[in-house]
Specification:
Chain lengths: 305, 305
């Protein structure tokens, strides 16, 4: 397999782009493609400070790496969730983030917030002791992460929070929302969520990058990352949809990309319109000051009552 | 497994309805459910003459059977497509239709139109000799069937053409249209297509019936049908989507039904709106008089030029 650019040995076949690339040209293509996504969706500008939510996994570390390589002012943020589950998951994840900085970007800033030491309980305990966490801790975890990310972004003057969500993630969510015609979600799902009323802008520069491309980028760039996914994500609906979508892609190259991009285009052009959930009024939480729809305390602060 | 109605031996578990039924109560439920679908979507009234498109397969024969059992004025129409493909497909299909009438409804009227003897060529030859048939004969076949069905419905004064499309068929098409955000199709896909400008009304009384339910009905009622699907349908995209959707249903009971019915409800309630293809002007074909968008001859008549 020969590189479409230089004729050298190709390391990856980007079927949906009809490109085969060697390591060097793949890294170049990957950075340029990410840059183009940032510009196309007007995610942030070179002068903006961007907060990258890093988990120690391939997507978020690859994102941080490529943003720094492109010259963006990207600082990392790791949230220690206190998840052990017999594999010391959270500690290991943080180690991968720290090693990434030391080996690849010794001058980069990594913000670390440890939920357990800062608030008294990690996610698994919190999930067991609260109403919201019944069954699975994922709902509590999402809430806690959103709260902390928003706080750090606000306090640090960041223009946007960037997450490593890739095309496979986005398409799985789109599939789930579409199968249930969740029109409120379908009205909003996008590579960019605009800032509003104290909620920081959120962007997904990998929204058009396939998961296997992010993994290949990490590999080629020598980025060591945590292979395990969160133990609580095993058997999730999202993973089930990803499996179905892989079959779809295997049957028809580019099917995932087409599903997602055609959705964005059709909505943009007004060919499909989804009813948005009614406008909600946000006001500051009485304790933490973050925006909430609740009358007194926000859902995060209520967790610790 | 006990019948939810009488406690007798159940022959089928309708998981998405939380019903287990014996043969007798299943047949009763099946007829009542079909009746309810006809009424809910205002498909046709008891005084209407309905033309049932029969292929010799389980769905269309089950549909004709249940419509007659419900007392509707349902006549059958079989279109001989001249498909042999080494298994004598078309002749065998007609035999199953004739046997169904003889064994179950000796007074029922079956209209037979044989494409080869009436127009000179069967579908496979026609597909090979025309531009439109290149590659696969399915496009030509669809065109021919629509033309003949419409002609027979118009000439016979039928209020509607009923086809045996079941929920699995509908959901596979919905999946295909959604994955490509074919908004023009998504605006129209429905259990009823209204009559317009000489195009007969089309209805799908099995739009909420799972394929396995139609098969079970045929079995319990002792209806013999052709097991082979059309040899040209093998490996079709629709079959691939059906396979994916079966996995979805296995993972989450009722998922297919939910996907389809939520779609219809969300569209009906205006929670999702699709842009329709612009209105097209129809006028009579210069040769056959059937409605067409073309200036001179309709696509069907052009086939035989």
């Amino acid at each position: 397999m020969k590189c479409s650019k230089c004729g050298g040995l190709a390391v990856i076949n980007l079927r949906q782009h009809r490109l085969r690339l060697c390591a060097e040209h793949f890294v170049e293509w990957f950075a340029r493609f990410t840059q183009r996504t940032i510009e196309t969706y007007k995610m942030f500008a070179p002068e903006d400070k961007v907060l990258v939510a890093v988990s120690g996994g391939k997507d978020s570390l690859a994102l941080w790496d490529v943003l720094l390589a492109l010259g963006y002012q990207a600082e990392g943020m790791y949230i220690g969730l206190g998840i052990d589950e017999g594999i010391d998951y959270s500690h290991k994840s943080l180690d991968f983030c720290r090693r990434f900085v030391a080996e690849h970007h010794p001058d980069a800033v990594l913000h670390v917030v440890d939920v357990e030491s800062e608030y008294g309980q990690g996610i698994p305990t919190l999930a067991r002791t609260t109403q919201r966490g019944r069954g699975k801790p994922c709902a509590v975890c999402g809430l806690v992460k959103r709260h902390i990310m928003n706080r750090v972004a606000r306090d640090g003057g960041f223009a946007a929070i960037a997450t490593g969500h890739n095309l496979d993630d986005e398409v799985a969510v789109l599939m789930q929302n579409t199968l249930h015609w969740q029109t409120g979600y379908l009205a909003r799902q996008a590579p960019v969520l605009a800032e509003r009323d104290g909620l920081a802008r959120k962007v997904k520069p990998f929204a058009r990058i396939y998961e296997r491309e992010a993994a290949a980028y990490a590999l080629v760039r020598g980025i060591d990352y945590i292979y395990d996914e969160c133990p609580f994500a095993k058997g999730s609906t999202t993973n089930f949809y990803k499996e179905l979508l892989n079959q779809l892609e295997l049957n028809s190259t580019g099917a995932k990309q087409q599903f997602y991009l055609d959705f964005l285009r059709a909505r943009e052009a007004g060919k499909v319109a989804f009813e948005e959930a009614g406008p909600v009024e946000l006001h500051p939480c009485q304790r933490c000051g973050q925006p909430t729809t609740a009358a007194g305390l926000c859902a995060f602060c209520r967790l610790w009552e």
